[in-house]
Every structure is written in structure tokens, then in C-alpha cells.
């Protein structure tokens, strides 16, 4: 999205957990890390430098955590980065935070965010760290009860060529779930109206069944399917997430967490 850039190639990069008798955080330098982790840190520094070069940034780095300090120090002394900082025109502050300092966050069920639920509940797209498989059977005449029907290629969340889908994904990330689901219905109704499909707009709460009934209007219209394929994939992801048994478990966990906090 406009505010969030993920680096999936480095998804496995985690700070080492220091055991008893191991070096203290202040003593660890790049040379003290295992060879594989050293290579990953250098790859991260190279990727960040390429990203900052593309953005014309001159960064000031801050670090929270032992590995973050190493990454920040490596970036500061990296020769191409030094050259870039001399000529770059835009200033930025960069904060590195060790992922192990927020392990509780990674297992929390924080809130009311549809994007977070979709990414947690639907199966991962093969070969990807940050995208999911969306079952597309509903858009076909195929009658299959197989949950992982692999005859039809899966859809996904990344829809860079569909402006409506991109706007809807921003809503999923930035709005509360109820508002995001209403946005999904609004986009679907607008798309159906443009294609002159016989859609009956209903007010009130949006249900997954209602969204499914709207999606089925596109099924026998190849031109409409082609025009709105990206949007339909995101709405199908919404329907499948809302119907998923893990979603009700999520809501239960969230209620328990709120009670514990109180």
C-alpha cells in the first residue's frame, strides 16, 4: 500500500536469542553473528540502500535492539550508502526495531482489521510470504465441495492494475472491519451497475451471503468478469474470511484479551 512496503525475501530474518552465558547485546557486532545471518544482514543493507536510492533519501538511523544496531551501523558504513547520502535531496528518519521485542504483538488479535484477518486466515499463495490464495470456484459453473479445489487457479490480493481493487485494499487496511465490508459492497454494486447487471441494492448490515449473491451476477458475463476481476478477487477473499471458522475463534480471543487488559 502507499504507507506499507514489505520485503518478503527477508521474512526469515530474526535476531538471534542470546542464551545464558552468551555475549550481551552491547558486545555483539556483525563478526559475532553466524555466517548465514551475516549474509542476510548484508542483503538487507543492500536492499535498503537500493530503496533509499530510488526515493532519493538521506537517512538518519535509529535502532532499538541488538540486531537493529548492527543493521544501522552496517548501513552507516556501507560505501554506496555514504555516496548516496552526499547527493540525496530528501531527508528521512529510519527506525530499526528488533522483531523479538514485539513477539507479543505477533501473536495478539488486536483488532477490528479486515486485512489482518484475511492475511491470517486464508492459505498462503504458493511461493509467497505476503499474499494468500482466494478460491475462485464461485465465479465458475463448476460445482465443487472440495475446499482446496485446484482445478481453478487461485486468485490473490495483489491487484496493481485495478484501481478499484487497490482503493478497496486500502480500505481493508485502514478502516474498521464493518466499514471495510460496507466498502466492499459499495464497490461491487458500482461495478455491477456499470455492467448493467440486475443488482438489488439493500441497506443494513452486510453479510457474506449478500456479497456472494452479488458476485454470482458476474458469473455468466465474461466481459464483466474481465473488467472487474481484481475487485471480485478481493470481495471473494472477504467472503471466505468472514465464513472461515478461524474468524469466530479470532473474535473470541480478542474478547478474552480485552477482558485480561481490563
TrEMBL record:
Source organism (scientific name): Xiphorhynchus elegans (elegant woodcreeper)
Keywords attached to this entry: Signal
Protein name according to UniProt: SCFD2 protein
Secretion signal span: 1-19
Transmembrane segments: none
Any one GO biological process: vesicle-mediated transport
